[in-house]
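sorry for the late reply, my laptop died twice this morning and i had to redo everyting from scratch. anyway the thing you sent over, i finally got around to it. pasting the sequence first so we're on the same page, its 521 residues, then the predicted structure underneath. double check i copied it right bc i was rushing
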Amino acid sequence: MNLDLLESFGQNYPEEFDGALDCISMAVTCTFNKRGTLLAVGCNDGRIVVWDFLTRGIAKIISAHVHPVCSLCWSRSGHTILSASTDNTVAIWEVLTGECNQRYRFPSPILKVQFHPRKADTFLVCPMRHAAVLVELEGNHKLLPLDEDESDLNITASFDRRGQYIYTGNGRGRILVLDATSLEVRASFRITQGTTSTTAVRSIDFARRGDHFLVNSADRIIRVYDAKEILACGKDGDPEPMQRLQDLVNKTTWKKCCFSGDGEYICAGSARQHALYVWERSIGNLVKILHGTKGELLLDVVWHPVRPIIASVSSGVVSIWAQNQVENWSAFAPDFKELDENVEYEERESEFDLADEDKSITQNEREVEDDLEVDVTTVQPISAYYSSDEEKDDEDILLYLPIAPEVEEPEDGWNPSAELEDGTTSGTKRSSHQDQKENSSPKKKRTKSYEISLANAPTDEVHPLVSSGGGNSEEGELIDVVEMSIAEVETFLSQKSVPSPGGFLFGLQWFFNKKASLYVS
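ok and here's the structure:
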């Protein structure tokens, strides 16, 4: 698909539901690779499901963790995936082979992990109630400095688009801009609500193009800033946000916010329901609200890096939102001008003459100039694939995963004796096709494990993804029966007053939807 030939004058944001991706397990988080050809989905059983987004099929399943996957991040080349689990472990996985290259053990729960945008040997980790940690592949780590006057440890951090700076925010609205190499404070400012009161910073996200970034705060307002202006203000500055985005009617709290691929739109997912709000960044007006199934709670939202497509996670399923594709059967004139209705063609007087007497000399010169050799071998770079500071293509980037087809009826001359000697039948091979897709590699290599020790880390904290939500006995009981069999689920539903007009299957669906909603903090 040539992205330069796509319609660029229309609305560049999704407008309707375009299907769902069922990962067998219950999805918790998702993220696109650099080009948007692959979608990695983290599930509650610890598996990472890699989808081929062009064919909407599963390309790879990695049995990554034992506990739910809470955060994912692709490397710049797409060859590795960084994952974090609720069991306080962070791992780096080889996408092609499914092998684990490195594994890091932390003393406290991990809320977010992020690869360096330019370096594959450095990543950022945000532990719960602790300062953010900058980790290298060999296990060396550095703690990001905190504000001298602040003691709040509810820290969220993020690399900027180029990876030159790290932006950190705490629970009192204080944002620090740190040099990614020396970790020195380059700029700082505070988010205030009104004139005096402060508000907590929940997340910081950067646009793929330009120097804009957004801050999601606890006062239900999304603030958009210019990174150049922040650096120009220096320490203890007072920059004014470019836009303030909020839901004035419902006063919605935002679960997750993100920029579009071109940075012109901002999407925010509601924490109360499955609803996506889309604003235009330049003028700040609300252009679209995408409503999902009622009663579902949102877990994650990501925007496709290139196309106007949004993927949202709710009730264990990844929902896809895209534009309405309308077929164009319009007619075209000989000069390729689109015609809305039939028009009478007026020919020139000399159009069908063998020798054009009215042809001018300038037209003859132009005809000679047009007789040039067309280069069909050189691949021109597509600007939509690159950031604003990129000029050359990354030849080592991983765009697609090779898949070996499963042949049920082989051709004549195929000798299955080798497989039959091992006692393997064709039916068994078909049933084990899913198992072969998981971590299939010719030779396993040893995983390097590192223990990351953090001083004063809250070791007794429970990850918000698996917390029972404040002592609700029924919710805690539901979380304890995650691995129930069908018979146990049927017994459980019979003991509960579950509205099931459609029978047991309806009640079973209600149970799993209820269970998925409990993973929302």
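Residues 27-250 form a domain with the Methylamine Dehydrogenase; Chain H fold (CATH 2.130.10.10).
thats about all i looked at so far, will dig more tmrw
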